[in-house]
């Protein structure tokens, strides 16, 4: 659609990069506000968000490389190419790396893990919604061909050159499907987070709702833009989604047991 906002000499402001930056700042602001409401150190939570963001970028690109490993083994120089650096990567790779970094940080500074995670969940959902709009503008993460009233057709050669999206073909706007779902998830999480709740219940709802939706949306993604599959059935992203849904169910079950004992 509009992968470049403007170009001045050798400098190009990409729509995806701008919206990802906006998404990060928005998510961090919401987490800081919720941290104060939860009685946490807002500065520590903000620093955690920065560490997690860096880990997420690295993790997303690492899973992207692993998902297309045969290509990168044949072309190792592409791992650190400008195209790879500009690519968004695989969200779940970023999420897993972010979670591991968060565990290390929480232990280092003695922050309560589940309560801190709850403060980040709404911001992650809203930030991801904004980021998916950036994906749509850039043309990445496109869907399968579709003959639907709301199908989208990419025509900008810059988008094809940047991310490889096919031009002139009506496609499922999977980026917008995800953005809409994340907005709904954000609304639910924000409502719950601002009311009394057991630690872990907010992040638990997120780990069930978004990965569950992403598992389904993967079936509408163009196979050429998806990571490799195991046995030709499910993609690496879908297996990761199932693992995260399982973790979310565990957290909600644990929160429910704690609520029962408290009653």
How much helix is in the residues?
55-70%
Individual helix count: 10
Helix/strand/pairing category: mainly alpha
Beta-strand content estimate: 5-15%
The number of E-state strands comes to: 6
Shape label:
globular
Order of helices and strands: EEHHHHHHEHEHHEEH
What about the largest sheet? 2 strands, antiparallel
Mean pLDDT: 85
Given as residue ranges, the uncertain stretches (5+ residues, pLDDT < 50) are 259-263
Separation of termini? 54 Å
Domain count: 1
Report the radius of gyration as a whole number of Å. 19 Å
Strand order of the largest sheet: 1-2
Which descriptors apply to this entry?
two-stranded antiparallel sheet, 6% strand, 263 residues, disordered C terminus
Summed up:
The chain has ten helices and six strands.
Question: How would you portray this structure in words?
Answer:
- With 263 residues, this protein is mainly α.
- The protein has one domain.
- The chain is 67% helix and 6% strand.
- It has ten helices and six strands, in the order E-E-H-H-H-H-H-H-E-H-E-H-H-E-E-H.
- It has helices at residues 15-37, 42-67, 69-74, 82-86, 91-109, 113-138, 157-163, 174-193, 201-217, 236-262, and strands at 4-8, 11-14, 152-153, 170-171, 229-230, 234-235.
- The strands form three sheets. It has a two-stranded antiparallel ribbon. Strands 3-4 form a two-stranded antiparallel sheet.
- The termini are far apart.
């Amino acid at each position: 659609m509009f992968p470049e906002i403007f170009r001045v000499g050798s400098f190009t402001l990409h729509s995806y990069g701008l919206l990802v930056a906006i998404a990060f700042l928005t998510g961090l602001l919401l987490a800081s506000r919720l941290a104060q409401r939860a009685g946490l150190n807002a500065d520590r939570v903000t620093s955690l968000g920065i560490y997690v963001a860096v880990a997420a970028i690295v993790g997303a690109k690492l899973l992207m490389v692993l998902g297309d490993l045969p290509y990168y083994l044949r072309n190792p120089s592409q791992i650190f190419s400008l195209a790879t650096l500009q690519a968004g990567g695989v969200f779940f790779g970023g999420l897993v790396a972010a979670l591991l970094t968060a565990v290390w940080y929480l232990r280092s500074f003695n922050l309560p893990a589940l309560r801190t995670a709850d403060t980040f969940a709404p911001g992650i959902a809203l930030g991801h919604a904004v980021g998916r709009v950036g994906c749509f503008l850039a043309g990445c993460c496109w869907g399968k061909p579709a003959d639907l009233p709301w199908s989208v057709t990419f025509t900008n050669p810059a988008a094809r050159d940047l991310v490889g999206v096919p031009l002139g073909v009506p496609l499922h706007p999977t980026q917008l499907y995800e953005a809409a779902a994340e907005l709904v998830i954000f609304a639910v999480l924000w409502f719950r987070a601002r009311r009394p709740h057991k630690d872990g219940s907010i992040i638990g709802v997120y780990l069930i709702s978004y990965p569950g939706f992403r598992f389904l949306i993967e079936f509408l993604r163009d196979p050429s833009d998806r990571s490799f599959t195991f046995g030709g059935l499910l993609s690496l992203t879908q297996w990761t989604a199932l693992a995260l849904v399982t973790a979310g169910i565990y957290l909600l079950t644990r929160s429910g047991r704690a609520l029962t004992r408290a009653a």
